[in-house]
Design a protein that fits this description.
275 residues; mainly alpha; globular
Amino acid sequence: MIEALQYEFMRNALMAALLASLACGVIGTYVVVKRISFISGAIAHAAFGGVGIGYFLGVNPVLTLLPFSVLSALCIGLVSKKTRLSEDSAIGMFWAVGMAIGILFVGLTPGYTPDLFSYIFGNILTVPLADIAIMAALDLIILISVALLYKEFLAVSFDEEYAEVSGLATTVLYLLMLCLVAITVVVLIRVVGIVLVIALLTIPASIAREIGCFSLRRMMVVSSLLGGVFTMSGLALSYMVDIPSGAAIILVSATAFIVVAMAVRLFRLLRLKSS
């Protein structure tokens, strides 16, 4: 694996993995604590509309993916909060509509779209330097937003009703959180693809909570570190065995979660028997 770093695409892949790990560790913590994984999945799949529009306009799909993802997040949040439509219905509707828009514009695009599958299933080995720069800028936006609104997001994540009674603009904070999820989706989409984004958003944070990280800051740090381990391990596995990188990253993550969950339960059982 070390010798592979002589290639530019492998160095780009490593940088993309680290940037993705930071985003999924920080925002994935909110997704797990707030229990909005299905909303995150809807945002990720709705984002495909932005990919289709990018191909149709002949521009870098990441440039259209970002505003479309944020718009989808705002629409999902507003519809679920401000209308009588149930949250699961709003999720299903925007999930399907976003995908349909993407399929429509891809179908209207003349010629063949060779790297379309890299947005659907992910291919970290094809991330160009320009996209890495965009990922770094989006990571910076995420970190600054979380640093400035840490206490407010903390209150909304654990007890939204109490936060509202305390005078916080909970709806605005909730929509901002969904926008950060949308930005994270854009960061992760070239690494694991639209289909697998939700797994990388939730697995590292779930493992962090499983091993006893109940402090939000600690969860973020541990999730980011775990995300780095999983993405780099998956990248190494895909290089050595010649399998799709996105699938390798998720399978490594899922295997780690199963092992940790079983180990924690075994430890609790042995501790209960000894007491």
